[in-house]
Amino acid sequence: MSTQTEKSPVIGKKSSPRSEAFKTFMKRLLKNKAAVIGGLVILFIILVGIIGPFLSKTDPNAQDILNKLQPPSKDHWFGTDNFGRDIFTRIVFGTKLTLKVGFLSVLIGGVVGIVLGIVSGYYGGIIDTLIMRVMDVLLAFPGILLALAIVSVLGGSLTNVIIAVGIFSVPAFARIVRGSTLQVKKLEYIDAVRALGASDGRIIFKHILPNIMSPIIVQATMRIATAILTASGLAFLGLGAQPPEPEWGAMLSDGRAYMHNASHMVMFPGMMIVIVVLAFNIFGDGLRDALDPKMKQ
Amino acid sequence: MTKYIIRRLLQTIPVLLGVSILVFSLMFLIPGDPAQVMAGEGASAQTVENLREKLGLNDPAYVQYGRYLSSALQGDLGNSIRSGRPVMEEIQTRFWVTLEVAIYSTILAVFIGLIAGIISAVRHYTLTDVSIMIIALFGLSMPNFWLGLLLIQWFALGNLPFDIPFPEFLKMRPSGWGDTWRQMVLPVITLGTGGAAIIARMTRSSMLEVIGQDYIRTARAKGVSERVVIYRHALKNALIPVVTIIGLEFGGFLGGAVLTETIFAINGMGRLTIDAIRQRDFPVVQGTVLVISLLFVVVNLLVDISYKFLNKRIDLN
Lengths: 297, 317
Description:
Chain A is mainly alpha-helical and about 300 residues long.
């Protein structure tokens, strides 16, 4: 983690310490083949999510009862479902939903968690105790339970799932950010900028936040994987995106009843969830290794 | 030690209170009138009013919470709107089923996770290590509800992929008395796989950190056998973060019960919760969420206390 925030004077072609650190980070990240593959898969999935629906000539909800439960073929790469809908098309359209839930819920959880964590770590005292006890309470709901409880009262919809999974992610961010803030605020340069009269807001946003971005980025990447798993779990239970939305978890749930004669209905949406979650996990692992100060040479 | 346990117990009280407040507040998150939502859209105004009165929703929030807490402390979590039976009674019959599956899953996850993690750490950066870690990464990334469905497809329905002939003894569908253990195998594997992956990863990294320390080098230099170095000196210290993960995973298994119990049609608390959500039976939802969370808090308390046994130097702070 870089702690140098003062800008070095530009002499000749010399680059700033921050860009040097970025170069070292990129060098390390690119050396990690698994992380590069994970990153490329994520990029590909994002492209599929954005461009895929425009390229597809088939309506993901177009029913063709005569061709229901068809196994994978040249016409239907992933087969068809119980309404004769093309599973491949539905998966392509569902990519956007999956990524939307993953990114937006982590954005909500991240922003709230970062603010709470930084305030908690920076001010300490009663504010810290209060915020962290609330986080302890949120963490007392194991696994999917908190998100499930929230969705159960708000009602099943994609927006409510994003909110629920976002709240579910808050404590993870708050704890990590608090820990990092506590470390950084003890450093001498923070004392120095404070002595120069910098306000709390300036210290937090200009001097602390940029220096604790590494663990936040790693956490965000990993949390997207968790968010996707949680959201698809909720959709599987019928509490997420509502029919006929091509959400992968909901598609898996639809396939349950036809498992014995159309296992492809379960196989492909599940495989897609595994691929996306795996890619984020591998990329997150790579980011952590590349940003880990212990590994700095 | 006693002082440590008492302090840790006292620290748990605010969390328990917070959990009860949050669970109680769920009712207020319901968009619109909770009584109307619970009674259903077609309910008459009188029915809604009766339900509101029955649930005490006309009182101020703090009065309602006080009543809720005082009843909960006496083991009364209200009555189910659908069945009319006490929520506690509904939970009691299913609690042990969920607990049993969670305990077996934890045992499986710890057993596989520890062994895989230790082998991986001892043979770090070899093909074995890389293979174990790749499998663990897959285990971590696999939605357990998908794994559950695949296991049903393969080992309950006997449809192995690529038309591989299915050996009957592997069929995990109980066929009579004395065979009921078979119905536990697939849910336990479904729940335990992700946990095993996390424990394996944590054990590996924790072991690698400990193995790199000076006292391990000293033990090796003194001629202590590798077996003793690993199992007596390294593992015990490496276990501390692993124990935390085991506690968290146990909680994850309790929470994950909502999915596995739905897939495997197990009559536990997870299924009770989902059924209650579908029927908008909020007292039951509140009751199950509260009980599962309390159990999780207690397990984490026990985990924290176990630190003291693993490492006497650990301080409460």
